[in-house]
Amino acid sequence: MKKLLPFLCAVLFFASCKKTTNNNPASLPNIYSDQQLGASANDMLSANNYTTLDIQIQYMPGYALDPAVISNVTAYLTGICNKPGGITITQSEIAANGDTLNVDKVAVLERQNRALYTNGTTLCVYILVTDGYDTSTTTLGFAYRNTSICLFGKDIFDHSGAIGEVTRIALESSVVEHELGHIMGLVNLGTHMVVFHQDTAHGNHCNNPNCLMYYATEIHAGLGALASYVPVLDSNCMKDLVANGGK
Hints:
By secondary structure, the chain is α/β, with parallel strands linked by helices. It contains seven helices and five strands. Strand 4 and strand 5 form a beta hairpin. The longest helix has 16 residues, at 168-183. The radius of gyration is 16 Å and the shape is globular. The two termini are 20 Å apart.
């Protein structure tokens, strides 16, 4: 599973990640979960304040994440986050939307539907999987609050599963794990760099093209039907996470 595929890397990071900040659209009832992206990096990584991690996924009809994706993401987080109380991921369906979305509209949907919030010693992360597209037309997902992520399910389906395309499991896993990397403060987004490795031309991304947190500027089309693997975090990203409380 853990091997970089150039086709996957290019499609994912050209067309997937838009790190965006929350200018407080549709404020949440839970103050903790209404902070800027990266604010909960140490809380995600360490057991200092939260010993359990719950991830609530809400998907629109037809866009539930594959069970293999849930297994991949659970293994990814288990290998990084110090959560002795465990990591739980649940999925539930919400009403269809069918609209082109931006961060403000996504925040409204979260406000209307999110049910789990950080409380006691349990940190909660929310992932919304929509049935539409981002207004940029090139974004498969983004992280936008300290515990909030949006995936554009229809767009992910459009870019995976066919002959010559990455598998859907690999693409979904990669988008989710990349955005969780931003929640954990990568790159230089609440988790400080041990060694400078930020791709400053592309914001909070790693400058290593073989890293999960890399942002590619071109799509390498025409590579044909290839096996699909999920890229991993490189040594610099891992050093950053460990220094901020990760395993």
